[in-house]
Amino acid sequence: MSESFTFYIDGVPVEAAPGMTILDAAQAAGIWIPRLCWHEELEPFGGCRVCTVKMNGRSCAACTQPAEPESVVENDSVALREWRKALVELLFAEGNHFCMACEKSGSCELQALAYRLGIAAPRFEHRWQAREVDASHADVLIDRNRCILCARCVRASRDLDGKNVFGFTGRGPERRVAVNSDARLRDTDLDVSDRAVDICPVGAIIRKGVGFTVPIGARRYDGAPIGSDVESANDELESANEHTEGGAAATVRQEE
Amino acid sequence: MSTTRRVVIEPLTRVEGHGKVTIRLDSAGEVESARLHVVEFRGFERFIQGRPYWEMPVAVQRLCGICPVSHHLAAAKAMDGIVGVDELTPTAEKVRRLMHYGQIFQSHALHFFHLSSPDLLFGFDSDPATRNVIGVAGAFPELARQGILMRKYGQEVIQATAGKKVHGTGAIPGGVNRSLTSAERVELAADIPRQKRWAAEAVAIARDYTLENLAFATEFAAFPSNHLGLVRPDGTFDLYDGVLRAVDESGEKILNDVEAGRYADVLVEEVRPWSYMKFPFLRELGPHKGWYRVGPLARLAVCERIATPEAEAARVQFDEAMGGRPGTMSLAYHWARMIETLSAIEEIEQLLDDPDIEGDDLVRKGERRPESVGVIEAPRGTLFHHYVVADDDTVMRANLIVSTTSNNEPMNRAVESVAKKFLTGTEITEGLLNHVEVAIRAYDPCLSCATHALGKMPLVIEIQDAGGRTLAEGKRNS
Ligand code: SF4
Ligand code: FES
Q: What top-level class would CATH report for the domain A82-207?
């Protein structure tokens, strides 16, 4: 096994093993890079581009780009924040996201990202596209109004569930998440216990009847903004570091 | 009628939130009729068609910026039926009631202190420039402060039960998603004595005003009517749940305790070409005689008693002043509204004293049903939510009757009676504008303009001749 190496994210030295993506290495170091289509259990997809960073001055998707020794990565800069904001705003403009009436509100990654990035008023013209709801399945519902085409469901069904329930059809603005049988969700072999059911970052694939059972205050992002779980892992590393004297934090990673 | 004579209500006018009134004169130049054109929830059915049923209690709050909590609860009650639950857990029932009383309390306080008190304290003819909540704050600072703190208290009750002051999520099909924490309960209970005292004082203000101006109030926008509202099966006042009861102008029951789910058997919604709004009437009495009032005045007319002591004592006084019959005075709405405010705070007190309010048995489940009706007494009157849900759990059809719809005809009558009294010739005087405004405001209609916190209602009055030609138009902006 080859040696791990160091690279720099916003000036902070980060350890990485060869082949590790920038996002994975950052994650392990407690540095949060905004992302949407990435999911820890799935192969990276590189679709949403919210994770865009600059490596040695060149833009790339942190979720697919392997880290390189001694490279200099720009993550939390004004320019990149603006770029990510625009991407997220475009997602809002393309879909029909009525957060107020959406049961995923408070636990939605898109909404949480919008809050964290400080998106206030919409800047782009809303497309108001008509999109279909598929309520045919007894336990699971697809609301395409909220789909951001992240392909998590596609990958989860294929790679985690060993099925092929989801796919995409159409191009450009007409692109939609579809189900494999080209029919309705009820005609697929989707089971409510499939990983694909819970992996949607927004409220596009939901379990029926759950609705608003989680009260305001107890939802995923009510207590802490998106990304803070990654960053607090960093805090824990640091405070562990303080208690065990200098340099010990690095060993936590080097031990692996 | 030629097209040039047709009255056109510009959608823009409605968006801007003007109350628009058309006064039609007969060939002799006397007031023949008056019509108030109000906002209707157009497109609502389309908006929720195909949406999953469990979304309704939250989604419908987008319909109305004035009483979202009432829509939230009416839809949740309907959804209880959809998930086959006829009786909630004690905690769920009590948390929902607490939320509802919080909403009644804050909405009535807002209406009274921000919108009505300037009229009552300064007189209808006083300068509109100071006849507003700012004027009240200057002349009666303590009262204005109470109004603000009462509203705030109601909102805190809503927050504790719904999770947020506006657009919360507390009520879900078959129950609630939260109950109170001990800390919330203690904090809310601590303020009860003061809130109760203020509510009682507000009743006294409204009562004294009505009694001191009784001669005027029995003339001003006063007319007999039928009244409709929910009561408990034993006739006790209840704002959250009950059976439908209607009484005629003498207090005789004309709808005796009909199960709320059967509303469509006893009510008909008439569509009139000139209005965006439907006109409901009691089927048995027909369109001409079957119209009715809803809201505080009607609720005190249909009930036999109020369960809490202070509000009941106030109700008895009110009943005496009305001569033991259903109220006829539009202005008496204010007094009735404050009695309800007092009853709401007494109910809140009892609920906060009840250990169930902290319980953790929140939701029940039952057999899915295809259709259900939820009815509640919203601050402005009876609110009906009716849904048909397909096998795939999405809403196929919905029908709503909001309180402002039910009060449509009464408000027209109120405006008509005021116009007959205050309109001479075709001149739209300040006095006419003032009095029309006061008459409409008594009903607390869901016009978007009714929310104008400064209390000055943007109002357009148009006078037409018998052929529908515009003779004069007067306007007051906010
Ligand atoms: S349905 Fe959800 S998981 Fe699937 S592509 Fe759309 S947003 Fe992603
Ligand atoms: S998270 Fe990297 S492209 Fe979506």
A: alpha beta
Q: What's the A197 CA to ligand 1 centre distance in angstroms?
A: 10
pTM of the prediction? Answer: 0.89
Closest C-alpha residue for ligand 1 atom 2: A200
Task: Give the ligand with the smallest distance to the CA of A206.
Answer: 1
* ipTM metric: 0.84
Which residues share a beta bridge with B52? Answer: B394
B291: tokens are 């119209």
CA distance A21 to chain B (A): 40
pLDDT at A2 over 80: no
The answer, yes or no, to whether residue A20 has pLDDT greater than 60, is yes
Maximum distance among all alpha carbons in chain A? 61
Q: Do residues B93 and B203 both lie within one domain? A: yes
Is the same domain home to B343 and B463?
no
- Please report which confidence band the pLDDT of residue A170 belongs to, taking 50, 70 and 90 as the band edges: confident
Where are the domains positioned within chain A? 82-207
Give me the residue from A136, A211, A214 closest to B55, CB to CB.
A211
Spatial separation of the C-alpha atoms in residues A63 and B258, rounded to whole Å: 63
Judge residue A237's burial from the number of C-beta atoms within 10 Å of its C-beta, 0-12 exposed, 13-18 middle, 19 or more buried: middle
Number of domains, chain B: 2
Shared domain for B346 and B462, answered yes or no, is: no
Q: Where in the sequence is the domain holding B452, given as residue range(s)? A: 5-40+412-476
Residue identified by tokens 């057999």 is B367
Mean pLDDT across B456-467: 76
Q: Which residues of A touch B58 (CB under 8 A)?
A: 100-101, 103, 211-212
How many angstroms does the Cα of residue B72 sit away from the middle of ligand 1? 29
Residue B298 lies in a domain: no
In this model, does residue B5 exceed pLDDT 70?
A: no
